[in-house]
Amino acid sequence: MVQRLVVEVDSIKLLEEYLRLVMATALNSNEELAVKIVDRKEKNLILYLPPPLSNQEKHFPIILVGGWYISEEGKENSYFNGYRPWETFKSEEETSAVDTAIRHIKNLIKEYWTEWSAEFKKKFGDGYNAFFNIYDGSVGLGYELRTCNCFPEQLAISIVHMYYGE
């Protein structure tokens, strides 16, 4: 059981490796995985986020990932069907749900990264502050992956500042 996990990385390749590990261990199940883009324009966004992400001054979630069990034989509805706009993934003969969900997440990041990073920079600035200025090093953008400690368990992928000391 994984009780708490927070990882910050600056590479999509590292994010993929952590996702693969965490999806298989931290979610309630990986029989059915679901991925949802966080609607940043939602007026009441705080109501739709897991509790650890509700402080918008600290977090900038862009993607949520959930896991659950496949419904009983003959039933079409899954846990995530009632909570649109989740996109669900199940294991098939040639690919696992984890592989398919990770491929989908990487495609979403490629498609929306420019828009999300511009919004992040507008809201949180360039990352320099009184404790880390241009003489201390450089600042880039990276990914935070965290467990959300909610039911069912979800993972959140957020944008964060990455600090590189000199």
Give the % helix.
25-40%
Class from secondary-structure proportions = alpha+beta
What order do the SSEs take from the amino end to the carboxyl end, as H and E? EHEHEEHEE
Physical arrangement of strands within the biggest beta sheet: 1-5-6-3-2-4
Largest sheet: 6 strands, antiparallel
Uncertain stretches of 5 or more adjacent residues: none
- Give the overall silhouette: globular
Number of helices: 3
Distance between termini?
38 Å
Mean pLDDT: 87
User: Total number of β-strand segments?
Assistant: 6
Radius of gyration: 17 Å
Strand content: 25-35%
Please explain how this structure is put together:
The relative contact order is 0.25. Helix 1 crosses helix 3 (97-124). Helices cover 28% and strands 27% of the residues. It has a six-stranded antiparallel beta sheet with strand order 1-5-6-3-2-4, covered by helices on one side. The radius of gyration is 17 Å and the shape is globular. The chain is built from three helices and six strands. It starts with 5 loop residues before the first strand and ends with a strand. With 166 residues, it is an alpha+beta fold.
Helix/strand layout:
Elements: E1 6-9, H1 12-25, E2 32-37, H2 45-48, E3 61-68, E4 87-90, H3 97-124, E5 137-147, E6 154-165
Antiparallel strand pairs: 1-5, 2-3, 2-4, 3-6, 5-6
In short:
With 166 residues, the protein is α+β, with helices and mostly antiparallel strands.
List its salient traits.
single chain, 166 residues, alpha+beta, six-stranded antiparallel β-sheet, 3 helices
